[in-house]
Amino acid sequence: MPARILSNIQAIEARRDFWIAATDLKAALVGGGSGGGEASEGSASVVAATPE
Q1: Contact 32, 14 (CB under 8 A)
Q2: What CA–CA distance (Å, rounded) separates 8 from 50?
Q3: Is the dihedral of CA 20, 22, 24, 26 positive or negative?
Q4: Of 9, 33, 1, 12, nearest to 45 (Cα)?
Q5: Chain centre to alpha carbon of residue 40
Q6: Domain tally, the chain
Q7: What's the rounded Cα separation, in Å, for the pair 45 and 29?
Q8: What was the pLDDT predicted at 14?
Q9: How far apart are CA 44 and CA 28, in angstroms?
Q10: C or N terminus of the chain, fewer CB within 10 Å?
Q11: Which string of DSSP letters, residue by residue, matches the chain?
């Protein structure tokens, strides 16, 4: 494949990874999470460490 196509594919994958990570962070801060019990324990420590 030409380099231009490969760079476009990598850019799209990077954007996808960013939005997935941003969504996971938002869910962790709200107290949700898709990982079961581990996610809620981690989000509690993040919320406790956040200054008010």
Answers
A1: no
A2: 37
A3: negative
A4: 33
A5: 15
A6: 1
A7: 10
A8: 97
A9: 9
A10: C
A11: --HHHHHHHHHHHHHHHHHHHHHHHHHHHHT--SSTHHHHHHHHHHHHHS--
Write down the pTM of the prediction. 0.52
Residue 33: CB partners within 8 Å, gap ≥ 6? Answer: 24, 27, 39, 40, 42, 43
Give residues with Cβ within 8 angstroms of 37, minimum separation 6. Answer: none
Q: Model confidence over 4-50: pLDDT tens digits?
A: 999 999 999 999 999 999 999 999 999 855 655 444 444 444 444 55
